[in-house]
Write a structure and sequence with these properties.
- By secondary structure, this protein is an alpha/beta fold.
- The protein has 3 helices and 7 strands, in the order βββαβαβαββ.
- The chain has a 7-stranded mixed sheet, covered by helices on one side.
- Strand 4, helix 2 and strand 5 form a beta-alpha-beta unit.
- The longest helix is centred in the middle third of the chain and has 20 residues.
- The N and C termini lie far apart (about 30 Å).
Length: about 130
């Protein structure tokens, strides 16, 4: 499935919205195998759009993403790997007050420091 700008898609309890051509907003939760499979499919299509449009940095606002289980983190790891191979950056807007944001995204950044930026909404800073 190809996401269109302004389009909101529900994947079980996950809300996905392509706010603009270089910004994705995620909300809700991602914790089931079916949800992960559908979300991965959306990200694969989005990756193709990013590459096709030669977007140098793509923003992902996860502030409303309440929970992602440990196996669902793999979906993000795979996307980061594809972004690194295609030479574009992923800039995740997080909320450091949310424990899983603080812990998980710092690990993702450590896996691909040249590909991942973390923008903490509370601090207004990039790491």
């Amino acid at each position: 499935m190809t996401l269109r700008t302004g389009q909101k898609v529900s994947v079980e309890t996950l809300e996905v919205e392509l706010v603009e051509s270089s910004l994705l907003r995620l909300g809700g939760t991602l914790s089931t195998t079916t949800g992960q499979t559908e979300f991965r499919r959306l990200l694969d299509g989005l990756h193709e759009q990013i590459v096709s449009n030669r977007v140098p940095t793509f923003g992902v606002d996860v502030r409303a993403l309440n929970f992602v289980n440990s196996s669902a983190i793999r979906v993000f790891v795979d996307w980061i790997s594809k972004a690194a191979q295609a030479h574009y950056k992923l800039a995740f807007r997080t909320d450091s007050a949310v424990t899983w944001h603080r812990l998980s995204f710092s690990v993702l950044k450590s896996l691909a420091p040249d590909t991942v930026d973390i923008l903490d909404a509370r601090a207004g800073a990039s790491t």
